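Consider the tokenized backbone below.
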């Protein structure tokens, strides 16, 4: 059974917390455990870049909190691409990722998405995305020090 989390839209003031949460997961995201070779990707996770994204109409962020602590973040870009779905390690397997996905999916559908989503899944998260209904659309790719699987979901 899933736990209940407080979920709300992200705002610019959340950028530092979002960055810290995602960067805490860096060993799951980069090819090299120390992040070497992934510097460009890691810069994209800085609070300055995330703050810029939070202010950009093309991005829609939702945040999950557990007792006031940021547990997860999801964001859709251009109303079709699941740009971010990250859950802090202490909350893995507790339903927060699924709940965040449901909130950003429903928001995108309400804003005119016809039922088609894409995501570039880390190899670590592939099983979760398959569980949510996504299917690989190509082979595992490597770029900027990260390894990912392009995936799509048609509702």
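A designed sequence for it:
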């Amino acid at each position: 059974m899933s736990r209940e989390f407080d979920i709300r839209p992200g705002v610019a003031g959340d950028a530092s917390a979002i960055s810290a949460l995602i960067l805490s997961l860096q060993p799951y995201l980069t090819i090299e455990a120390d992040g070497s070779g992934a510097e460009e990707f890691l810069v994209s996770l800085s609070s300055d870049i995330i703050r810029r994204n939070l202010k950009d109409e093309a991005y829609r962020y939702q945040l999950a909190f557990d007792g006031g602590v940021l547990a997860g973040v999801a964001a859709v870009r251009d109303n079709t691409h699941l740009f971010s779905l990250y859950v802090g390690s202490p909350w893995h397997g507790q339903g927060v990722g699924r709940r965040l996905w449901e909130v950003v999916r429903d928001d995108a559908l309400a804003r005119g998405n016809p039922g088609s989503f894409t995501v570039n899944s880390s190899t670590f998260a592939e099983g979760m995305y398959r569980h949510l209904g996504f299917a690989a659309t190509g082979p595992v790719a490597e770029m900027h020090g990260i390894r990912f699987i392009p995936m799509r979901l048609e509702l």
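The helical segments are 15-23, 26-29, 39-43, 47-55, 96-110, 126-131.
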